[in-house]
Design brief:
alpha/beta; seven-stranded mixed sheet; six-stranded parallel sheet; globular; binds nicotinamide-adenine-dinucleotide; binds zinc ion
């Protein structure tokens, strides 16, 4: 089969690789219909995530049709149209049993290398999905593949970031980053009751889309803190969502949040450490939350909100690519020439 393969920094090629097989009785193999390129793939592209070997199949966002079913799979049959989490989970370890699927002892991240379970990715004609009964959902009839794909990662990541911040209806949310995740955090904040959402980015076209979603756009290249204070009666935002990744924007979040407020970070970084603003957090009574998204906690909610039209993630799709053109999708996305690349496969 054909698949997008990592070759080294800034090098992706489309090659023939062996088709995935059922390896465990809890696996399914799907024929991928739609995949996508994610901001998280860019960290791999920039060679910032250790453990992704040359030759690995990339990609972790997917919708597909079940092709083959392991002997212990009970919920799915050949022909089912399915969406699944980027981070498969076993459903039976002590973390899964507590609902912390993102901490599954037996899970990993598809297409993310040796440090994340060494699972092949989904920018491919076929993909093996481990722990299918826990990881997958059937796509509701009225939801298209291009809508559903967002529920397996970035929409649910964004929705969960807002939920992790314990948003109270009527509050003001500032979202740092108006990339795909940040824009869907804007939609999610409104869906969870925010009265006002501020969207911060350096790229004006991205801010324009945030404005279409009802947010107040703020170009953060100049005096981000001052602009946010102006919008919040001088106290700061109740909740700040960080959707970029890394120390500078996390520290920016601490500057933008009000005393007693909550910072919720979903941006991915490989930086081992950051200097924490300890005393100001103490005095200002701040809450800081960071983690890999718990997709399987919230995927049923986001699927229903997409089905009802309350969330409209497909509005951020800017470009569609064939599998053969995935290398171009990486290049253009890395250069911020496109907002969200969908890969149409079968
Ligand atoms: P992206 O790279 O397309 O978007 C990042 C945005 O941040 C861009 O629009 C960029 O212009 C903006 N930005 C950069 N520096 C900035 C600054 N100083 N101030 C304001 N804006 C700035 O990526 P994305 O797809 O939107 O993903 C965002 C982050 O979320 C990535 O780090 C991605 O890996 C991460 N992510 C995390 C999870 C998780 O489980 N925690 C899941 C999905 C994605
Ligand atoms: Zn992703």
């Amino acid at each position: 089969m054909k698949a997008a393969v990592f070759k080294g920094m800034h090098e992706v090629s489309v090659e023939k690789v062996p088709e995935p097989q059922i390896q465990q009785p809890t696996d399914v193999v799907i024929r991928v219909t739609v995949s996508a390129v994610c901001g998280s793939d860019l960290h791999l592209y920039h060679n910032k995530i250790p453990g992704l070997l040359p030759g690995a199949v990339l990609g972790h966002e997917y919708v597909g049709v079940v092709e083959e079913v392991g002997s212990q799979v009970r919920m799915f049959a050949k022909g089912d149209r399915v969406i699944g989490a980027f981070n498969p989970a076993c459903g039976i370890c002590e973390f899964c049993r507590r609902g912390a699927y993102n901490l599954c002892k037996n899970g990993g991240i598809l297409g993310y290398g040796m440090a994340f379970g060494n699972l092949a990715g989904t920018q491919a004609e076929y993909a093996r999905i481990p722990f299918a009964d826990t990881t997958l959902r059937k796509v509701p009839k009225t939801v298209s593949d291009e809508q559903a794909i967002f529920c397996g990662d970035i929409l649910t990541t964004a929705y969960g970031a807002v939920k992790n911040a314990a948003l109270v209806p009527g509050e003001t949310v500032a979202v740092i980053g108006a990339g795909p995740v940040g824009l869907l955090a804007v939609q999610s904040a409104f869906a969870q009751g925010a009265a006002k959402v501020l969207s911060l980015d350096l790229v004006d076209e991205r801010l324009q889309m945030a404005e279409e979603f009802g947010a107040i756009p703020i170009n953060s290249s100049k005096n981000a803190t001052g602009q946010v204070m102006e919008q919040t009666d001088g106290i700061g935002a109740d909740v700040v969502i960080e959707a970029v990744g890394g120390t500078p924007t996390i520290l920016m979040a601490f500057d933008l949040v009000r005393p007693g407020g909550r910072v919720s970070t979903v941006g991915i970084t490989a930086e081992p450490q950051m200097t924490y603003p300890l005393m100001s957090s103490l005095v200002r009574d701040l809450t800081f939350r960071i983690g890999v998204a718990n997709i399987l906690r919230d995927i049923d909610t986001t699927l229903r909100l997409v089905e009802s039209g309350r969330l409209q993630p497909e509005r951020i799709i800017s470009d569609r690519f064939s599998l053969d053109d995935v290398p171009q999708a990486y290049q253009k996305f890395a250069n911020r020439q496109i907002l969200k690349a969908i890969v149409s496969i079968n």
